[in-house]
Amino acid sequence: xxxxxxxxxxxxxxxxxxAAEPAVGLDTEFLRERTYRAELxxxxxxxxxxxxxxxxxxxxxxxxxxxxxxxxxxxxxMHASRQDLEVLLPVAGLIxxxxxxxxxxxxxxxxxxxxxGELVRRMLGKELPKMHTRxxxxxxxxxxxxxxYALDDVRYLLPLKARLEExxxxxxxxxxxxxxxxxxxxxxxxxxRPENAWQRLKxxxxxxxxxxxxxxxxxxxxxxxxxxxxxxxxxxLEDAVLRDIVIRVPxxxxxxxxxxxxxxxxxxxxADEILEIVRAADxxxxxxxxxxxxxxxxEQTALVKKLGAVNQxxxxxxxxxxxxxxxxxxxEQLAEGGRDVPVLQGWRRQVIGEPLLAAx
Length: 360
Description:
This protein is of the alpha/beta class. The chain is 52% helix and 8% strand. It folds into 3 domains: 4-190, Nucleotidyltransferase, domain 5; 194-281, HRDC domain (DNA polymerase, domain 1, Orthogonal Bundle), CATH 1.10.150; 298-359, DNA polymerase, domain 1, CATH 1.10.150.80. The chain has 17 helices and 6 strands. The chain has a 6-stranded mixed sheet with strand order 1-4-3-2-5-6, with helices on both faces. Strand 5 (75-78), helix 3 (82-92) and strand 6 form a beta-alpha-beta unit. Helix 1 (8-19) packs parallel to helix 2 (63-70) and helix 14 packs across helix 16. The N and C termini lie far apart (60 Å).
């Protein structure tokens, strides 16, 4: 089989071969620096004894590959799969089921965000080259070295799956893994709805309701505009500028221009739209003063520290990174009285949630 597939006939043959496999390695190469939607440049796949690169830039479409990617068999083995699933969603649909070697490795006691190359080194004893980590995968032709580099990204996924399943079975954690992997089948996590775009913004905590309405409306406008023009959302309006608009609530073009780092192009093309969004948000005029950040109460700080120590101790006893069990945000929410948190759901409730509740 040719290492790179550029014809429909070859793709159909590859797809038939993959469909007969119980599991296949899967990875992608893409670019998204200048666009909202990632440009899919390469799809790498591997079976038990073969691997190939599919070149979507040379093909009229990748439809023959869709069937084995969407059916329950074969299992798609990937590493740090979230971005790849997001990129493949508009091309092939929701890929499932997925075995994510990064998630499995974390449950087996590896660092929570371990890279593919490091995992291959630790578990299989192989050193992978790093010379093409910054390759522009949209440029053609691809060199033989680039193709080999891309194939390495899938060649070791099936052996990793076997080793990780064996280790997690030994540890009695296969049910943990099944629960974690089921979360990858939520399509809503792979795309951003404009009305929910504000949830990605930082620095909104403590804002009054009027400013929150403005933040939600501005983020939704920016997301829709980025989608329509297929441009990165930061090219439409940078996060820092968006937040400044929310804080200052400008009501004239002059006030909008006075915002630091406000691009002249935004004033020329979008000032009227932005000011209309400000008016529609109905923020009181003048806007209320910003709430001052309250220093955590000493007893709250002590409680977070206490819960963090419990998490550290449980993680250490299980040979896990603490953030695999509970994040800092999880612990802070628990200390603040929150109960709709991941540590109180699924396998984590018994393993870490109950000890944390007991410590409260």
